[in-house]
Structure formats: structure tokens, C-alpha cells
Design goal:
- The chain has 451 residues and is an alpha+beta fold.
- It has 16 helices and twelve strands.
- The strands form two sheets. The chain has a six-stranded mixed β-sheet, with helices on both faces. Strands 9-10-8-11-7-12 form a six-stranded mixed β-sheet, sandwiched between helices.
- α10 packs antiparallel against α11.
Length: 451
């Protein structure tokens, strides 16, 4: 007689208790904030210098910030470019410069020298005409290569329409704006925004606090105290009535379809955890409703997803997919159906449990990484979070209810005041879009109205 197999699922155990390395904090007289997380499990160290400056628009010379980031690290006032890069490679280290800061990583036995090289590159950059021309040419080539990229066009138009072309998050870097930039613009931009007032240096790894504090005071103590410019801008307003914003790209073989609206969701909001899970259920991955509908049920796309970004500044919710031109109108109808469903019906206990398990699993897998610890420490500082935010992360996820999912879905996933941005081939897509009961407005690839 065959033995009976017990297929009942075991009850889940208690949520794992999270214990994070507590950063030690100090501040230099120039305003630089330093967070040190000691972790002696591996002989490694990471340094992350981040600027928490206000968003700013660059206007007719959009691209200055990106070019400044790409020029950093190409030699310093003390060390030629080749020598500087060769020493970093010799140490087996990595030092990456970008518009919003610098990061460095390597073995702890070289920790002091890596920090020296990072500080030298950040505080004593060498901006030469030769390197400027090289980086400018690279940026122009990249922009030209993306002129026919439907995904890039879609992203740019979304931002321009949702935030406004004069908003920091809505302006575009174009060939025309980059061609207006000269080397002096880069030097002025660096002097204005690469300042210690809103700068954070996060150190994670095999270091001794007193030793690294002494090194940082020596290397960064002479950084001149200065404030970054304060810029005011008007937050965007969503459309009064849902509408289709269409962009014709004649060579497009499929449509980029995106539902998008602006949101205000800081990480310290009580809506933060319910919103994460609501998005996971709607379109956070292969288990999301959008994926199951548009791909698994209808076979219209390789994948359909949604996302939202929590920030102390205005951000956006978006949902969509790349679909065949001939089914774009049908896909729009189905996304509207899913938006209305999650706004009108409570999610099942099973769906909510699965969404929680996915988030908790990802959180636990990442929590031991030095980069994650550094990011969490920085978020607590810059996003105004409670000190125990990440210790209570799993507990707060577990506490979310179906009622809360319904509430945040109605607040952040708009269905009656949302833009449907469609980038595709007009002759294949537009006739069917006109059959939908939605106003249609047409734009060019830069977000300029054609109506």
C-alpha cells in the first residue's frame, strides 16, 4: 500500500530579527557629515561620498551636471590621469565618480591610500580642455545614438509631460543643450554644487573608528565651507481627466505604452509600506497582475510592470509595457481594468502574503552587503527616517492590511487623472486609439505639443 504524502504547508515561522551595524557619526566644521559602520567580517572597506543637494534645472545648458561627473577622476591637480588610474588598478580598488558623488571600494589593508585617492580626485580635480572635448563628444554620440531609441524617447516624453520641461525632473539633455556647454561652465558648476554643506561620507567595513576619523579630518578638513544654491520650483499637477499623449516614431515596430502620474510619497510616510506592497501586487514582477494579464493571458508583451519611487521630493508612479502596434489599444484597456480592480477590490490574503514574502526575502538577502548598510545609513540621515527604520522594516511590512492596500491604491495609482503616454508608429496605432473613449493629444519626441 502506497504511503500517503502529507502536502500541507507548514506554518511560517517568526519574522527574522534584523540587527544592523549602528553607524558612529561625526561632523566636520565645514559641514561634511560622516557615518562609520564597522564590519570586520571581511577585509574590505567602502567609502561613499554623496551630495544631498536640492534638485535643480540646468536650462539651456542641460548636461552640465552629467559632464562634470564624467570629467571627475580624469587626473588631479597633483597626479596625471594615467598615473592616477594605474595606482587605483594596482591596489585592486575601484573608485567611481559621478554627478552626485564618489564611491570607492577595496581591501582594508589599503584603506588609507584608497581614501587618499578618493579625496584627491573629488577635491582637486583637473578639468582640461582636452578631456572636456573627449567627454563632450562621448555624450553627444550617446545622445545621437538614442535619438531613435523608442524606450529612451518614451522616458523623456513622460518626464517632460508629467513634471514640465522646466522642472528639474522634466528637462531634457539634447544635442543642442550640450553644444552650448563650455569648459568654464563645468568649472563653475563644480564650485557651486560640489560643496560640503549637504555632503555625506559613509564608511563601511574593516576599519577602526578613531583611525578613520583622523584620516577623514586630515583629508577633508580643509574643504572650504560653502552652501549649494537653493532652488524653488513648482510641483507638477496631474491632468484633470485621463488622456492619451501620443508620439509618432515612424520606425517603431512596437509601442511603448506607459501610464504615469506624479506622486508625493516620502519614505517616512505611513503610506510607504502599503504602497510598496500595492505596487508589488499590481506590477512588481512576474507574479504581478499586469504581467499575468498582458503576457500570460493575452501574449501581447514580454513583460508588463509598474513602479513607484518614494522620495522627499515629488516623484512618479508608472505602469506599462512594450506591446505590438496592433494591440496597443487593447493593452490600454486591460491596464485600465487592472488599475480599477486594485482600486475597487480588496486584495486577497494570499496575494498580500506572497507580496510580503517577496519583499522580505529580497530585504534579508541584501541586508548583509556593505553597500546596503551604507545606503540604509544614508537614507536614515537624508530621508528623515527614525533610527530603527530598517530594524522594524520586516515588522512594518508584515503589519500591512488589505484595507491599507486599497487606500494607497486609490491615492497613488490614478485611473481618472492619469496620462497614457504612447510612443509608436502613427499609421499602425493611432486609428485604433481614436476608438477609445479618451482625448488624444500629440507631441513630438521632445514633448512639444503638435496640436
Amino acid at each position: 500500500m502506497q504511503a500517503q504524502i502529507d502536502r500541507t504547508q507548514p506554518n511560517p515561522g517568526p519574522a527574522p530579527k534584523i540587527s544592523l551595524g549602528k553607524p558612529k557619526r561625526f561632523e566636520l566644521k565645514n559641514g561634511l557629515k560622516v557615518l562609520v559602520v564597522q564590519n570586520h567580517k571581511l577585509p574590505r572597506v567602502s567609502y561613499t561620498l554623496t551630495f544631498d543637494n536640492q534638485p535643480f534645472a540646468e536650462g539651456e545648458k542641460a548636461g552640465i551636471d552629467e559632464l562634470t561627473g564624467s570629467l571627475l577622476g580624469n587626473g588631479t591637480l597633483k597626479t596625471p590621469k594615467e598615473t592616477y588610474i594605474e595606482e587605483i588598478d594596482y591596489l585592486g580598488a575601484q573608485v567611481d565618480f559621478h554627478a552626485s558623488g564618489v564611491s570607492a571600494f577595496g581591501l582594508s589593508k589599503f584603506k588609507h591610500r584608497i581614501l587618499e585617492l578618493m579625496a584627491e580626485g573629488a577635491l582637486q580635480p583637473l578639468f582640461t580642455q582636452e578631456e572636456f572635448e573627449k567627454e563632450k563628444a562621448k555624450l553627444l554620440e550617446s545622445l545621437k545614438a538614442n535619438e531613435k531609441n523608442v524606450k529612451v524617447i518614451a522616458e523623456h516624453v513622460q518626464n517632460a509631460l508629467v513634471f514640465g520641461k522646466n522642472h528639474p525632473f522634466g528637462e531634457q539633455i539634447t544635442v543642442a543643450t550640450v553644444n552650448r556647454i563650455v569648459l568654464n561652465d563645468i568649472q563653475n558648476h563644480y564650485q557651486e554644487f560640489f560643496v560640503p554643506e549637504n555632503a555625506y561620507l559613509v564608511v563601511v567595513g574593516d576599519v577602526q573608528f578613531d583611525e578613520v576619523k583622523k584620516s577623514i579630518e586630515k583629508l577633508f578638513g580643509n574643504w572650504a565651507k560653502k552652501s549649494a544654491p537653493k532652488v524653488d520650483y513648482i510641483n507638477p499637477v496631474n491632468v484633470v481627466q485621463s488622456e492619451i499623449n501620443f508620439v509618432n516614431v515612424p520606425h517603431a515596430v512596437q509601442s511603448e505604452m506607459t501610464f504615469v502620474n506624479s506622486i508625493e510619497l516620502p519614505m517616512n510616510s505611513p503610506d510607504f509600506f502599503p504602497a510598496l506592497l500595492a505596487n508589488q501586487i499590481l506590477g512588481g514582477g512576474g507574479e504581478g497582475r499586469l504581467f499575468l494579464n498582458l503576457r500570460e493571458k493575452h501574449g501581447w508583451t514580454y513583460g508588463a510592470y509598474s513602479s513607484l519611487k518614494a522620495s522627499k521630493y515629488v516623484s512618479k508612479f508608472k505602469a506599462g509595457a512594450s506591446v505590438r502596434n496592433t494591440v496597443t489599444d487593447s493593452a490600454i484597456v486591460e491596464v485600465f481594468n487592472e488599475l480599477k480592480r486594485i482600486r475597487l477590490e480588496k486584495v486577497s490574503d494570499e496575494d498580500l502574503k506572497n507580496a510580503k514574502a517577496k519583499y522580505i526575502g529580497n530585504f534579508v538577502m541584501q541586508i548583509e552587503k556593505p553597500q546596503t548598510i551604507a545606503r540604509h545609513a544614508l537614507n536614515i540621515e537624508t530621508q528623515n527616517l527614525p533610527k530603527d527604520f530598517y530594524e522594524n522594516y520586516i515588522k512594518n511590512l508584515e503589519a500591512v492590511t488589505p484595507e491599507q492596500i486599497l487606500q494607497v491604491a486609490n491615492k497613488y495609482f490614478l485611473a481618472d487623472n492619469i496620462r497614457v503616454v504612447v510612443v509608436g508608429k502613427s499609421e499602425d496605432v493611432l486609428p485604433n486609439l481614436k476608438k477609445l473613449d479618451l482625448p488624444i493629444k500629440q507631441f513630438d519626441v521632445y514633448g512639444n505639443s503638435l496640436d
